[in-house]
Amino acid sequence: MIAKFFNKTKPINTLIELVFLIVIYTIATFKLVEYDLNFQFILERTVIFVLLLFTVFAVNFIIRKNGLTKNNSYTLLLFILCITIFPFSIINNILLITHFFLLLAYRRIYSLRTGKDTKEKLFDSGFWIGIATLIYPWSFAYMVLIYMAIYIFNKRTFRNVLIPLIGFFTPILLYGVYLLAMDDFNNFQLHLKYSFQFLNYNSLKLVIPIALILGYLLWVIFPTTAKIIAVNNEFRTSWFLLLVHLLIGILIIIPSPVKDGSEFLFLFFPASIILANYIQIIEERWFKEVFLYLFLFIAIIPFVI
Q1: Could you count the other beta carbons within 10 Å of the beta carbon of residue 160?
Q2: Residue 76 CA to chain centroid, in angstroms?
Q3: Domain residues of the chain, as ranges?
Q4: Is-above-0.90 flag for pTM?
Q5: What is the pLDDT, as a whole number, of residue 303?
C-alpha cells in the first residue's frame, strides 16, 4: 500500500511526508537535546527546523529539475526516513547547515549535464563547497564531485578546471580578509578533526540502521546499474555521478570526529535517489511493499529502544 501510494507525485504525498518530518523532529528535539525550555531554545530549534524544511525542498527541487528519478515521491520519503533512522542528524546544527550549503552545490553540479551556463555553475558549486568547508572542513572532498562531473559530462577545458578552484577559494579568502580587518586573523584555522573510534557503532540504535542502509545499498547498486547501462539514455551519466557522490559520502563518514549517526547525513541525498531508482525497476509489487515497510520499521527503532 505504501509503495502504491507514493508511486506518484501528489500534494497529499508531500503533505504527509512533511507532517511525518514535523513529528519526528519534535520527538527528536525533546528526547535527544539537553535543554531549558526558554525563548532562546524555541527560537533556535525553530530556525533549524526551517532550515530542515528548506533542505527537503532543495532535495525535491534537485531531483525534479535534473530528472534523477521518475515522477514519484519515493526519494523524498526515503530521505525523510533516513533522517528518522539517524535522529542525531536532526540535532547536529553544524552538519545540517553544512549539508544545506552542499545541496546548493549539488544543484549546480548535477545541472552541468544541460550544457547551459557551465562556467557560472562551476563557480557557484565551488563557492558553496568553499562555504561548507569553512563550517565543516571535510566538505572540501566534494570538490572531487565537481571534477568528476566535468569529466562525465564532457566539459573538459582548462578554464573549466580552473573556475571551481576560484569559486572554492573565494569565500575562504573573503573570510580571511574579514578576520584580518577585525584584527582576529589568528582564529583563521581549518582543522581536519578526525576519529577512527567506531565503538559507538556497537549500539543497537546505530548498528541496525547502519546495517540496513549499507545492506540495502549493496543489494540495489549492481542490478540498478546494470538496468540503467542497458538503456541508452542521458541518465546514465548522472547515475555514475551519483555513485561517485555516494563514495565521497562514505569516505567522509569514516574519519568523522563525531560518531553518533549524524555523520551519515552525507549519505542521505545520493542513497535516497539510488534506492528510489531501484524501487522503480522492481516489478513485483509485494517486494516494493516489503522493501519500504522494513525501512519504515527500522526508522522507528531509535525512538523505542
Answers
A1: 18
A2: 11
A3: 2-303
A4: yes
A5: 66
Residues in the chain: 305
Which residue has cell 558553496? 128
CA gap 110, 122 in Å, rounded: 11
97 contacts 139 by C-beta, under 8 angstroms: no
Q: Which long-range contacts (CB under 8 A, 24 or more apart) does 219-228 make?
A: 220/274, 220/275, 220/277, 220/278, 221/274, 223/278, 223/281, 224/274, 224/277, 224/278, 224/281, 227/281, 228/277
pLDDT digits (tens, 9 = 90+) for 254-286: 999 989 999 999 999 999 999 999 998 888 888
Joined together, the cell numbers standing for residue 304 give: 523505542
Residue 127 in this model has a pLDDT that exceeds 90: yes
